[in-house]
Amino acid sequence: MTKVGQVTVGSLLQRLSSGTGRRSAAAPAAEGLEPLTERLSRNKVTRIALSFLDANAGLHLKDLLFDATSDDRRVVVDGHSVWNFGSDSFLGLDRHPRVHEAIAAALPEWGAHNGASRAFSSPVLVDEAEEKLAAWLGVPDTFIFPSVTLANVGLLPAITQPGDLLVVDRESHDSVHQGARLAAAHGARVVELTEPDPAALERVVARAGSHKGLVLAIDGVYSMSGRMPPLAELDATIRKLGGIMYVDDAHGTGVVGPRGRGAAAEALGTLDNVLMVGSLSKAFSCLGGFVTCTPELKTILKIRSSTFIFGGPVPPPYLAAISAVCDIIMSPEYDDLLGGLRSRISRFTDGLDALGVEYHGGGSAIISLKVGDLEQTFAAGRALFDRGFYAQSATYPAVPIHGGLLRVQINANHPLEAVDGLLAAVEQVWKDLRLPTRRRAVTKS
Ligand SMILES: Cc1ncc(COP(=O)(O)O)c(C=O)c1O
User: Fold this and answer.
1) How far apart are CA 234 and CA 264, in angstroms?
2) Among 147, 149, 178, 221, which residue has the most ligand 1 atoms within 8 Å of its CB, making it the best to mutate?
3) Dihedral in degrees, nearest 10, Cα atoms 37, 39, 45, 50
4) Distance between CA 393 and CA 229 in Å, rounded?
5) For ligand 1, what atom is nearest to the CA of residue 280?
6) How far is the CA of 126 from the centre of ligand 1 (A)?
7) 354-395 pLDDT, tens per residue?
C-alpha cells in the first residue's frame, strides 16, 4: 500500500533495469516469491504500469490510506485534511446511527461471521434482508451475494446455457465481463455491444445468428463516467428479439429512480421483466449485492451459481444493517436524505455549467469532469488534492486512453461549503492547467 508520493516499486524496477532478466550461472538462485514477482513484473503491460507509477510517484493518488475520517466526509492523508469526493456511500449511511446500532446489536447475538457457505446454512437475518429488499423494490424476491462482483461472476454463467447468446455492453463493469467470460467457458456464445444503441443491438444479435436464450448484460449507471444507457429503448429491443435484460445497477441502487429503486425501475416503471443487480455496499453502505427474482428462479439460481455454492456469505451484522437501511429507505427520512443528495448534485452541476467545465453524469451521484490526457488527469487530481479536495482520477484502462476523467462522487453528508469549495478549486485548477472548457477547446500548448 502507498501513501501520497510514495510507491514501493522503485527498487524492483531498478533491479529489473540493471540486467537482462537472465541470471548468470554465478548468481545465487532466487528464492521464495522472488522468481514469481520478477516473472510477472517483466510482463509488458505490468512493466509499463510500474514505470508509470514510479515516474509519477508524486502525481497520482493511488492506494491512498486515510489516517482519519469524519461524519462530514473529511479525511486525513499524511497529515493533510481534504474533503473526500471519492466515496460511493452516496447517502452518508455509513455514518448513520441506525446502521451502526443494527451492526452493534447483531454482533453479540450472531457473532462476526456465520462461518459457512449459504448453501449449507445461514442466520435467519438473510431471509429478513431479502424480503425487505423485495418489498422496497416491488418484486417477488431477491437473492443476496457477498458483493456485486460475486453476483455477476456467479449469475451470468447461471442464467445462460450452451446455445444461448449473451450480449455484453462494452462499457459494463469489469465484473460483468468476467462473468461473461465464465458464461462463454460454460458454452454460451458471448458478443460485445460496442455502443448502447438499440439499432446496434439488433445488428449484433442478427449477426450472431441462431440462438436459444438471449440476454443483454449492461450497467444501469456507468461507473466511471456516471452516464446512463437508454435502458427503456434497449429493453424494448431485447424483448422484441425474445430476450431479457440483466442490469448491473450498482451505482443507481438507492439513488436513481422512484424511491431509489434504480435506473431500470426509472426507465421501465417496473422491474418485472428484468434481472436487476443492485449494490448493498454503495448507497447502502453495508456489504454485498443482490439480484431481483422470483422464489422459483431463486431456487434455480442457487443450484446454478458457483459463487453462491462455493463462496462465503455476508456476515450477520451486515445483514442486520441491510434491513436497517431498507427501513430507512421506506421511511420519510429517506426523502430528506435523497433531497439533500440531489440538491448537492444540482448545485455542483449548475456550478460546472456556469464555469463551462464539461462533464458526464449527474443523473446519479457520479459526475465525471472531462480532462482527456492521462498525465493531465493525474495532475488535475493532484492539484485538487493540494487545494483540499480528493476526487478520483479515472484513467486508462478504466476509460479510453485519451478519455481521462476526474470522477467526483457527491454524498448527502457533504457540507454545502465543501461542494462550493470544490467548484472554486476546479475553476482554479482548470485555469492553471489549461484544461478544456466549453470556452477553451485547446488543452495543451
Ligand atoms: C457497475 C458496478 N458493478 C460492480 C461493481 C463491484 O461491486 P462490488 O464492490 O460489490 O464487488 C462496481 C464497483 O464499483 C460497479 O461500479
Assistant:
1) 11
2) 149
3) 40
4) 22
5) 10
6) 21
7) 999 999 999 999 999 999 999 999 999 999 999 999 999 999
Residue spans of the domains in the chain: they are 10-50, 68-87+332-432, 96-329
SS3 339: helix
The minimum-distance atom of ligand 1 relative to the CA of 277 is: 3
pLDDT, the chain, mean: 93
Question: Do the bridges between strand 165-169 and strand 214-219 make them parallel or antiparallel, or are there none, so unpaired?
Answer: parallel
Atom of ligand 1 nearest to the CA of 219: 1
Choose the weakest-confidence range: 8-12, 61-65, 143-147. Answer: 8-12
- Site of grid cell 455492453: 169
- 282 contact partners, CB below 8 Å, separation of at least 6: 88, 89, 90, 250, 251, 253, 254
Give the dihedral of Cα atoms 301, 306, 308, 314; nearest 10 deg: -140
* Residues contacting ligand 1 via CB (< 6 Å): 147-149, 173, 175, 219, 223, 248, 250-251, 279, 281, 289
Q: Closest Cα to residue 6, out of 48, 58, 65?
A: 58
Q: The C-alpha cell of 104 is what?
A: 452493534
Q: What's the pTM?
A: 0.93
* Nearby residues of 347 by Cβ (< 8 Å), 6 or more positions away: 416, 419, 420
Q: At the topology level of CATH, where does 68-87+332-432 sit?
A: Aspartate Aminotransferase, domain 1 (3.90.1150)
Top-tier CATH class for 96-329: alpha beta
Alpha helices in 209-256 (DSSP H): 231-240
Cell of 90: 452516496
Tell me how many degrees the CA angle 299-303-308 measures, rounded to the nearest 5.
100
**Which residue minimizes the CA distance to atom 11 of ligand 1?**
149
> Whose CA is closest to 369, among 387, 356, 383, 388?
356
